[in-house]
């Protein structure tokens, strides 16, 4: 399939303009002082499970912006308003220890409690089903993260529209490694997501190589052109934030929910339009797997205000319906 693509020139016409195509930037040699991390220690006043809280931010096992180390610590990168940053978080003995590198280090450390669920309120959730009550009791360390950053969750959510997770994870991995920049800090396997201008200049054949069709790439292009306005949504109430995101053509309820769950820590932003979730909720709460969005919302109605948390607990319960239907088949964008 690689033979279908022309060699990559240094300059080309991209969406109507003769512009240079950005590539991943090499990490400059840095003096020793610049790799010294900023640090913070924080004692959460609640049980904390790093994997449960930060797991939704990981886009597949080879996500170049996220890594779980053998010692249980979590490494992740972000493009903050202050610049790129890398954060390492480790928990033990009731204490969280964090290190951060790069221009965004202080920003990431300031927002560490929110990232780890300090702004979440699980006490607002009242289980109405035994399954959820048992799962909540068994998972006391579950909190909903709030990153305070929109684009880093919005773009991978757009890439996940109407494709398999494997396809979406591959696209995210290839594009971030190709057009992102090496992350600050000691882990040379991590990358920071491209800045909005870089996303906007990715040529069509690079999207094609990553397996991203024109509909999704065009949606990303429209989003990054108004990235500053979309980032403002992180400070809004979740429903207002979703309305702001859905003003961009190509961003609908599925994508806005997946984004604000992470950027805003939205406990009620249940995902509709999902290929699997209605059948999972129907199986767990009603004993059958042929539920649609309407029935899923009806089943989750007792959890109004906390429907996303209820869905997370259902997924964590392990009560998933057996697969009897055909698997979703990856598409061939060359045929589109």
UniProtKB/TrEMBL annotation:
<dbReference type="GO" id="GO:0032131">
    <property type="term" value="F:alkylated DNA binding"/>
</dbReference>
<dbReference type="GO" id="GO:0005737">
    <property type="term" value="C:cytoplasm"/>
</dbReference>
<feature type="compositionally biased region" description="Low complexity">
    <location>
        <begin position="19"/>
        <end position="41"/>
    </location>
</feature>
<dbReference type="GO" id="GO:0008725">
    <property type="term" value="F:DNA-3-methyladenine glycosylase activity"/>
</dbReference>
<dbReference type="InterPro" id="IPR051912">
    <property type="entry name" value="Alkylbase_DNA_Glycosylase/TA"/>
</dbReference>
<dbReference type="GO" id="GO:0032993">
    <property type="term" value="C:protein-DNA complex"/>
</dbReference>
<feature type="region of interest" description="Disordered">
    <location>
        <begin position="1"/>
        <end position="41"/>
    </location>
</feature>
<keyword id="KW-0227">DNA damage</keyword>
<keyword id="KW-0234">DNA repair</keyword>
<protein>
    <submittedName>
        <fullName>3-methyladenine DNA glycosylase</fullName>
    </submittedName>
</protein>
<dbReference type="InterPro" id="IPR011257">
    <property type="entry name" value="DNA_glycosylase"/>
</dbReference>
<dbReference type="GO" id="GO:0043916">
    <property type="term" value="F:DNA-7-methylguanine glycosylase activity"/>
</dbReference>
<dbReference type="GO" id="GO:0006307">
    <property type="term" value="P:DNA alkylation repair"/>
</dbReference>
<dbReference type="GO" id="GO:0006285">
    <property type="term" value="P:base-excision repair, AP site formation"/>
</dbReference>
<feature type="region of interest" description="Disordered">
    <location>
        <begin position="65"/>
        <end position="84"/>
    </location>
</feature>
